[in-house]
Amino acid sequence: MAWGEKRVGVVIVAGGSGSRMGAAVPKQFLKVGGEYILVRTIRALEPYAQEIVVVLPEGEMARWREIALERGLDGERCKVCAGGASRFESVRNGLARLGECDLVAIHDGVRPLLSARMIERGLECAATYGAAIPVVDAVDSFRMESEGELKVVDRSRLKAVQTPQIFAAEVLKEAYGAEPNPLFTDDATVVELSGVRLAYYEGERRNIKITTPEDLIIAEALARV
Fold first, then answer.
1. Distance between CA atoms of 23 and 114, rounded to whole angstroms?
2. HEC-encoded secondary structure of 104-159
3. Tens digits of per-residue pLDDT, 5-44?
4. What stretches of the chain show up as alpha helix (H) in DSSP?
5. What's the predicted TM-score (pTM) here?
6. Which residues partner with 167 through β-bridges?
7. Which domains does the chain have, with CATH numbers?
8. Which long-range contacts (CB under 8 A, 24 or more apart) does 97-101 make?
């Protein structure tokens, strides 16, 4: 295991408002399988991390502190910080709160169903290549709008990108020294535009991002198997 002796830090970005979910609370505080989505996410990554930073909207930090205290996640190993106006700024805030580490995994707070095997694949890939991105094959058919027409896209050339995206700490921190850019759609883009080549590892279909009520139903079913 190339990553076995590496110190791993995790930044969990949980800045959602829950507007698309139509819930009374942000989606990261809903429950799947009887547990808060955000807590399930942390528990999946906890065995691999020396330190975890949870990035939340400023107005949700008090709610999280109550949950963290109840679930035993309020120690120095699991910290919290306020996010920014964009994902880029939120991740940068999380990195600033993170202590010294060799590898940093950035993960969506509402992807609670990733497996240990997937995490280990990502850590191995990142330890070997310095920048590791999980992808899965596209299964739907796609068309792209062009000059007023919808033209077929070869789906065999498309990949869906997931998290955790895992990087050598020095690579990630240098990339996040850049100014915000509209092209920064995820951490992989930030790192790639800094000139670093990305490596890819196999993601998982069950590693869904819970965004809509339909996602929540699917996640409940997946949590039982």
1. 23
2. EEEEECCCCCCCHHHHHHHHHHHHHHCEEEEEEECCCCEEEEECCEEEEECHHHCE
3. 999 999 999 986 666 677 778 999 999 999 999 999 999 9
4. 37-45, 61-71, 87-97, 116-129, 169-175, 187-192, 213-223
5. 0.95
6. 104, 131
7. 8-134+161-223 (3.90.550.10)
8. 97/53, 98/9, 98/11, 98/51, 98/53, 99/9, 99/51, 100/7, 100/169, 101/6, 101/7, 101/8, 101/9, 101/50, 101/51, 101/169
